[in-house]
Amino acid sequence: MLMTLLFEGRFADYLRDAAVGNGAVIFVHVPKTAGSSLRGELAARLQPDMNIEVDYNDATRLFRDKMDDAVRNFLAGPAEHIRFASGHLMGRHVAQMRSAMQGARFITFLRDPVERVVSDYRYQRSPKHPPHPQFREKYPSLEAYLEFKGDRNKSAQHLIAPAVYAGRDPEECVDYLLRAYDFVGVQEMYPLSFRTLTALIGEPAWPKLRENVNRNEEEENLSPELAAEVREANAIDAALYEAVFPRWRAIRDALAAHLG
C-alpha cells in the first residue's frame, strides 16, 4: 500500500517506491476532479500518450459499451507503446489494464463528493456535453438527478473493482482504493498533489493549467439540507474522500517542506 507510506510521513520511501519507471502511467479520470488540467500537463511530460475516449455524439450505443470497446482496442495495440494514458475508465477497465500492463502506475484524483456531483450535474447540462439537451429534459433539477441511481457514487464506480463495489461496504472500498492506486490526489489540494505526482516522474513542478473549471454560486449556495441529501446518496464516494482528504491535510506542511 504505497499511499500508506505517504500518509505515514515516510516521504522519501514513498517517492522512491512509487517512482515512475519505464512502465506506463494510467490516469483514471473521475469526471469533474481537475482531470482535464492534469491530463494536459502530464501528457506533455510523458510521451507518447493517449486519451481513451468515446464518441459522445453517437447516441446509438451506451457509454459503457463504447468505453468497453475503446479499452479493448487500446489493450490490443497502443498500450504496448504509450507512457501515459487517461480516460473516464471504470473499475472493470482498471482491473483489465492492471492484468495486461505489467509495471504500470495507476493514479487518480478525488474531490469533495457534494461539489463533484453539483459540478458534474452542471457540466452535463452545458453545451460542452454533446447530449446536454436530453440530459436537461430528463433531469430538470439537481433533486431529480439525485434520483438517478446509475450516477450515484460515480467516483467509486470509476475507481473500485466491480466485485468490491458490489458489496457497498465503505471500508472495503477504501481499503481497495489505498491498495490499488499508486497515487490518489485531492482537488482541494491540487497544487501540492500535482507537485507530489510530478516528483514521482522526476520532474517536480507546480501546475500551470486549469481547464473546465465551472464552480459557481450554485455550488457555494447549496442548502445544507440538499448538500446532506447529495452526500447521503453518494455515501461510498463520501467514505473514499473522508479517508483520503484528512490524511492529505495532516501531512500538508511537512510534505510541502520535503518537496521544496
Give the number of domains.
1
Low-confidence runs: none
The secondary-structure class comes to alpha/beta
Amino-to-carboxy terminus distance? 25 Å
Give the strand order of the largest sheet, numbering strands 1, 2, ... along the chain.
2-3-1-4-5
Q: What does the overall shape look like?
A: globular
- Roughly what fraction of the amino acids lie in strands? 5-15%
Helical segment count: 15
Largest sheet: 5 strands, parallel
Q: What is the average of the pLDDT values? A: 93
Please trace the helix and strand order, writing H or E for each element.
HHEHEHEHEHHHHHHEHHHH
The total beta strand count reads 5
Q: Can you put this structure into words, describing what you see?
A:
The chain contains 15 helices and five strands. With 260 residues, the chain is an alpha/beta fold. The protein has a five-stranded parallel beta sheet, sandwiched between helices. The longest helix has 25 residues, at 235-259. The radius of gyration is 18 Å and the shape is globular. It starts with a helix and ends with a helix.
Task: Explain the layout of strands and helices.
Layout: H1 2-7, H2 11-17, E1 25-28, H3 35-45, E2 49-52, H4 63-76, E3 84-87, H5 91-100, E4 105-110, H6 113-124, H7 132-138, H8 142-146, H9 154-159, H10 162-165, H11 170-180, E5 183-186, H12 190-200, H13 217-220, H14 224-233, H15 235-259
Parallel strand pairs: 1-3, 1-4, 2-3, 4-5
Helix pairs in contact: 11-15, 12-15
